[in-house]
Amino acid sequence: MIRTKDRRLYLVLEDRTAIRYRVAVGRSSKQWLGTVQIEGKHVEPAWSPPEEIKLDNPKLPDVIPGGSPRNPMGARAMTLSGGGQYAIHGTNRPESIGTFASYGCFRMLNEDIIDLFGRVSVGTPVIVLR
User: Fold this and answer.
1) Which of the following is catalytic: 23, 24, 80, 105?
2) Which helix (H) or strand (E) holds 87?
3) Active-site residue 105, yes or no?
4) Which residue among 17, 101, 113, 129 is least enclosed by CB atoms within 10 Å?
5) pLDDT digits (tens, 9 = 90+) for 81-121
6) What is the rounded CA–CA span in Å between residue 63 and residue 38?
7) Nearest Cα residue to 78 out of 123, 39, 48, 111
8) Residues 63, 72: contact at Cβ < 8 Å?
């Protein structure tokens, strides 16, 4: 579960306790709510900026290779279902964690996304609340 107003992701465990991670969430005009699932899991993914980001930042290359320090996806990414281009991912900007900074994705510290990546599987539900 992700609570955007708190900028926290909660992984609820079988014993009903939760691991809490700090995240960066969408800017006010880029936030969304709902229930989706983890659709894919990727290690050091390459990143192709979506059209909206490319329009705002036309100097961005078409692709930034995985593992590059310029790659905003960080060490891991988990894509989300729902037809959008959203993901829970690491970051190359750790100072953004805990802020309203993204275009709708959820950024985590690289060490946190590596931990979460190892704990969840494709198909895990993700509930996004205000």
Assistant:
1) 105
2) strand 87-89
3) yes
4) 17
5) 987 789 999 999 999 999 999 999 999 999 999 999 999 99
6) 23
7) 39
8) no
